[in-house]
Amino acid sequence: MTLTSDGSRKEMQNVVAGQREHPALAPPERWRMRSKLGDHALSEWTDILAQTHLRFEVSATERTPPTFCGVVTRRRFGGLAMVDCGCSPFLGRSVSGEQGERTAEVFGLQFIRRGVESVRERSHEINLRAGDMVLWDGRTKVEIEVLEPFVKRTVIFPRERLLAVCPHLEDAGALPPLRDSASVRLLVRYLDSLAIELGALDQPGRAAAADAALELLRAAVAPSVPSSRAARRTAMCTEVRRYIRGHLSDPSLGPDSIAAAHTMSLRSLHALFEDRDESVCGIIRGERLARCRDDLGLAGGGSVAEIAYRWGFHDPAHFARAFKAHYEVTPSEVRRESLLRASGA
Fold first, then answer.
1. pLDDT tens, residue by residue, 184-233
2. How far apart are CA 54 and CA 52, in angstroms?
3. Shared domain check, 207 and 279
4. Cα–Cα distance, 281 to 258 (Å, whole number)
5. Between these two residues, 298 and 147, which has the higher pLDDT value?
6. Cα–Cα distance for residue pair 72/308, rounded to 1 Å
7. What integer pLDDT is reported at residue 344 of this predicted model?
8. In percent, how much of the chain has pLDDT > 70?
9. What predicted TM-score, i.e. pTM, was given to this entire model?
C-alpha cells in the first residue's frame, strides 16, 4: 500500500489465497487498486494491464469516477492464462508494436460479464455488452473505452498455440465474430466450470484442461474462418496430430492406420509433413514419450514397464533407450525421483 502525491490511499496487492488451491501448485495472482484521480493516478492500472493483458496508454474520461477502482485475478494452466478483470470506466489505446514496444504474440478470448466496453479499430467500432464474446489479436492496435463499470473474463492463448489448432486464423485478416451458437455456449460453460475446479487440478490435469479449451475454441471459431490451400494443408496436419494424440495407447498406431482413418494414401500422408522437419513416426514417438514422462512423474502412475505398455511401446527395453536418447535421463531415474517426492524424502 502506498500514498499518492495528493495524499489519497492507493492499493495494489498481489494476493496469494484460495482454500481450494493445490498446495504444490501456484495459487491465483490477484491485483487490486483504488486511487483518487490526479497526476499518475492510473499509472498502476497501466502496469497491471501490461502484466495481465496488453500494454495500453491509459487515461481518464468524463465517465471515470473521482476514485478509480480495479481488480484482476489471473490463473495459469497448461501455458494459458484465465484473467478475470473488473474496473471503473477509462480509456485505453494499445501500444503493441509501436515506439519500440514488442508485438504481443497472443490471442485473447474475452467474455463480458457486466457493463459496456467500446472497441475501436480504425473506422470500425463495436460495443460489447454483458453476454458478448470476442476473440482479439494482440498484434492489432485498438482503442478501448469502458463506458460503465464492467467485469470481463479473458483467456489468453500464446499465438503459436492457437494457430496450431486453428491455422485458418493466420489468413483471416479480421477475426471472426463469435455469435451465439451451441459451440460458443459450451465454451462459456466450460470456462466457468474450469474457473471453479482449476485450483484442484494437478499439472497434467491443467495441461489437459488447456488442450480442451483450445479444442472448444477451435470448434467455435473454425466454421466462420475462410481457408486458403495452405491453411487447409496445415489444418490437415493438425487433424493428424490430434488423431495421433487420441490413439497413442493403440499399439497398432502407425502411418498405415492413420492414412486409412483419413481416407488418404500413405504417400499423401507423408507428403503433408515433408517440409516440416518431422515425420509421422517421429510425431508418434515424441507424443508417446511425452505421455510416459507425465505418468512417470505421478506417484500412482505404475511401474516403468506398465507405463511403457500403456502408451503403445511393445518393448520396455526399447522404450528405455528411446526415452534416454530424447530426455537424457532414464525412465527409472524419473520414476525414482517422483516416488521420493511423493514420500516426502
1. 889 999 999 999 999 899 888 898 999 999 989 988 887 666 555 666 67
2. 7
3. no
4. 11
5. 147
6. 43
7. 67
8. 84
9. 0.63
The span from the first CA to the last CA of the chain, in angstroms, equals: 40
Helix (H, G, I), strand (E, B) or coil at 154: strand
The percentage of residues in the chain with a pLDDT greater than 90, rounded to a whole number, is 41
Residues 208 and 271 in one domain: no
In the chain, where does DSSP find H-type helix? Answer: 43-52, 159-165, 182-197, 203-221, 229-246, 255-261, 266-272, 280-296, 304-310, 316-327, 331-343
Residues 295 and 336 in one domain: yes
Q: Please tell me the distance from the alpha carbon of residue 249 to that of residue 260, in angstroms, as a whole number.
A: 18
| Distance in angstroms (rounded) separating the CA atoms of residues 50 and 35 | 18
Residue whose grid cell is 484521480: 37
Same domain for 235 and 194, yes or no, is: no
Domain count, the chain: 2
User: Would you say residue 63 has pLDDT above 60?
Assistant: yes
In this structure, what C-alpha cell is assigned to residue 58?
Answer: 491509459
Pair (248, 194) in one structural domain: no
Could you tell me the residue range of the domain that residue 257 belongs to? Answer: 229-343
The verdict on 272 and 185 lying in the same domain is: no
pLDDT reading at 316 higher than 80: yes
CA separation, residue 20 to residues 74, 76, 273, 290, 300 (Å): 15, 15, 44, 28, 22
C-alpha cell at 18: 484460495
φ, ψ of residue 52 in degrees (nearest 5): -110, -20
* pLDDT score for 4: 30
d(CA 61, CA 147) in angstroms, rounded, equals 9
Q: From the CA atom positions of the chain, what is the Rg in Å? A: 24
Question: 263 and 168 in one domain?
Answer: no
Could you tell me the pLDDT band of residue 172, with boundaries at 50, 70 and 90? low
pLDDT-based confidence at residue 69 (cuts at 50, 70, 90):
very high
Q: How far apart are CA 296 and CA 311, in angstroms?
A: 12
Q: Are 202 and 280 found together in one domain?
A: no
Residue identified by cell 480495479 is: 70
